[in-house]
Amino acid sequence: MKTLIVIGGSASPKLSARVSRLLRCRLVRPELKRFPDGELYVRIKADLRRRHVVVVQSTPAPQNDNLMELLLLLHTSSELGARKITAVVPYLAYARQDKRFKPGEAVSLRTVARLVESAGADELITVDIHEEHSLDDFTIPARNLTAMPLLGQYLKRLRLKRPVVIGGDQGSEPRAKMVAQPLGAPYDYLVKHRITPTRVVTKPKKLDVRGHEAIIADDIISTGGTVIEAARILKRQGAARIYAVCTHGVFAHNALKRLQRAGITVVSTDTIEGPTSRVSVAPLVAQALA
Ligand code: R5P
Prior knowledge:
Elements: E1 4-8, H1 13-23, E2 26-28, E3 31-34, E4 40-43, E5 52-56, H2 63-79, E6 84-88, H3 108-118, E7 123-127, E8 142-145, H4 148-157, E9 163-167, H5 173-183, E10 187-196, E11 199-204, E12 213-221, H6 225-236, E13 241-249, H7 255-261, E14 264-269, E15 277-279, H8 282-289
Parallel strand pairs: 1-2, 1-5, 5-6, 6-7, 7-8, 9-10, 9-12, 12-13, 13-14, 14-15
Antiparallel strand pairs: 3-4, 10-11
């Protein structure tokens, strides 16, 4: 008898099904309802005693509802006698507020870490967290997986003629490299070049993108501002077509419409399930659990 059981939260219905299929283990869909006052009701109708329970629940918007559901699923699994509990939270809400940038601010990620741990998680798995070192805030083992090579493999299947992968800044160069490798494409990042003491032009550090399909690689697209600005620069440099690939398609404030209107083809993963989720992180998660 396999001891692994996957519990699929409402923010990750497809991903949890894919993970359980790959692991050939049972998928439990919890019963979820709202009380008349709006509070969340959770019921897990399965025998979890002595099982390794994997709760798959991402936490995109509405972040607080999805987070609360995650906490209820973790704590209930613990009270129902699970032997080990893994929280798979592919998109971890509040991860970008990982420091006290201004005096008095909440370090939100740290609060989330305390909540996840005290709800009963024995380990955490997430994907392309904004800053990997912020996982040090967890006292349980916490692992970060990266979807960048999977995005590169997806792009390879599109058989682009002259792809180049571009990161938005120097910090995103390692991500651009991971997308470029499976494609066998060159990679670069945008940098400000000073032309005269008063004139600065932003362009790729070394590559000429003229006539190429430029792929902007990022961990997250939120408002879309970063990608739209990068696309504008690359088009001005003569790129033939613009793709934007990211792990987390947050798309706040109608960002997806604005990106599409700007002629950008957007590809994301199922860490946040939506119309651009063409790449699944299920193989990564399943491999980490195997
Ligand atoms: C920045 O460091 C990140 O990697 C993303 O580029 C950024 O968070 C994207 O945000 P937005 O889509 O709002 O520009």
